[in-house]
């Protein structure tokens, strides 16, 4: 039996692109058309990623995440960023903390295109930051470290986005 992303998401209990911006992009991908937008363009055009986009801009990663890739991005929502302790985001967005912001954001990026059907087979993945994220399937839910994957397989011209409900923080070295 061939598993497509919709079947996989249904089995895992994950929602598949409920917001109109995601639905439009997902629809074109599910019909076999090539994705036309980069990861950054997709995030900019979607609701719920204003904070992530602002952080990517502040970190100077727009060009990198718009390049050929491919990349897999575990993308925290605005609500995920809001869960950070008060003042954390504001501190990270300051120019003097750019290195720390880059480390956190690149910890959300896995080199290569890793779709949901591949993610569920992994126990961990090495990130662009150099650390590893732990991947665990518990019942109908997929977790990356302490975050839960809430949307999967948002296909982009240069990779794939999986939406998560918490910001991933790399372990201190």
Description:
- With 173 residues, this protein is an alpha+beta fold.
- The protein has a single domain (5-164), classed as FAS1 domain (Roll).
- It is 37% helix and 23% strand.
- It has 9 helices and 7 strands.
- It has helices spanning 5-12, 20-30, 39-45, 50-59, 62-66, 78-82, 88-92, 98-106, 116-119, and strands spanning 71-76, 109-111, 124-126, 132-138, 141-144, 147-156, 159-164.
- It has a 7-stranded mixed β-sheet with strand order 2-1-7-6-5-4-3.
- A hairpin with a 5-residue loop joins strand 3 and strand 4 (132-138).
- Helix 4 packs across helix 8.
- The radius of gyration is 15 Å and the shape is globular.
- It starts with a helix and ends in a 9-residue tail after the last strand.
- 38% of the residues are buried.
- Residues 1-31 have low confidence and may be disordered.
- Termini Cα gap: 44 Å
Please summarize the sheet with the most strands.
7 strands, mixed
Fraction of residues in helix:
25-40%
Strand % is 15-25%
| CATH C-level name | Mainly Beta
Annotated CATH topology: FAS1 domain
């Amino acid at each position: 039996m061939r598993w497509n992303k919709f079947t996989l998401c249904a089995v895992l209990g994950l929602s598949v692109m409920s917001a109109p911006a995601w639905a439009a992009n997902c629809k074109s991908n599910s019909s076999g058309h090539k994705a036309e937008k980069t990861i950054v363009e997709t995030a900019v055009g979607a609701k719920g990623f204003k904070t992530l986009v602002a952080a990517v801009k502040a970190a100077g990663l727009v060009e990198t995440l718009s390049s050929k890739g491919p990349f897999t991005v575990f993308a925290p929502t605005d609500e995920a960023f809001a869960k950070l302790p008060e003042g954390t985001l504001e501190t990270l967005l300051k120019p003097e903390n750019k290195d720390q912001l880059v480390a956190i954001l690149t910890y959300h990026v896995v080199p290569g295109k890793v779709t949901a059907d591949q993610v569920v087979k992994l126990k961990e993945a090495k990130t662009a930051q150099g650390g590893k994220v732990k991947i665990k399937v518990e019942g109908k839910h997929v977790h990356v470290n302490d975050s839960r994957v809430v949307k999967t397989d948002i296909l982009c011209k240069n990779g794939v986005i999986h939406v998560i409900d918490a910001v991933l923080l790399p372990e201190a070295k």
